[in-house]
Write a structure and sequence with these properties.
5 helices; alpha/beta; 18% strand; single chain
């Protein structure tokens, strides 16, 4: 079974209260009604494509948690591992996102990372800089599905520790 990395940018969120530029206000931003609908569409899309993560890595922000809540009822099977709410994913640069992915246990074949821009977009572009579809931008609720080279062979020696631009290729980019 192929190793897959799913990168999901949170769905549309409400703005922070006027004049409050604190991290706490940003972390507390909920999804809008349109964002909740988009999260459900993402879950439906994952089910239609038989993609159910073994491990979920999620920013602790309210908007990422609510995005995850919207799609979870559509996942085929429960995750092998508990969802990891990682502070390191919030407002993270590419290197921090890669570090979280590289900590993934070998038993996890499909990993879902729910995060934020600009990190998610930059990571997707780094992993497959030949994918012109990624040049359109990574709008809220966008989902990129990557597969790891060699992970579907009988002698699979692939590892999440080797996750980089040479090991992953974009399969699908969608805005469900």
């Amino acid at each position: 079974m192929t190793r897959r990395l799913l990168l999901l940018r949170h769905a549309e969120a409400a703005s922070a209260p006027a004049g409050d530029f604190s991290e706490q206000a940003d972390l507390a931003r909920p999804l809008t009604a349109a964002g909740r609908t988009a999260a459900i569409r993402c879950g439906d899309w994952l089910r239609a494509h038989a993609l159910s993560p073994d491990l979920i890595l999620c920013s602790p922000a309210r908007r990422t948690r609510e995005t995850l809540e919207g799609l979870q009822p559509f996942l085929h099977t429960p995750s092998l591992f508990p969802t990891r709410f990682c502070d390191a994913i919030y407002e993270a640069p590419v290197e921090a996102l890669l570090a979280q992915i590289r900590l993934t246990p070998a038993q996890a074949r499909t990993v879902l990372l729910v995060g934020h821009n600009p990190g998610i977009s930059a990571l997707a572009s780094l992993l497959d800089n030949q994918a012109a579809v990624l040049d359109q931008g990574f709008a809220t609720g966008s989902l990129a599905v990557f597969h790891m080279w060699g992970s579907d062979t009988e002698n699979d020696a692939s590892s999440w520790q080797a996750c980089d631009h040479q090991s992953l290729t974009l399969d699908t980019f969608s805005r469900p």
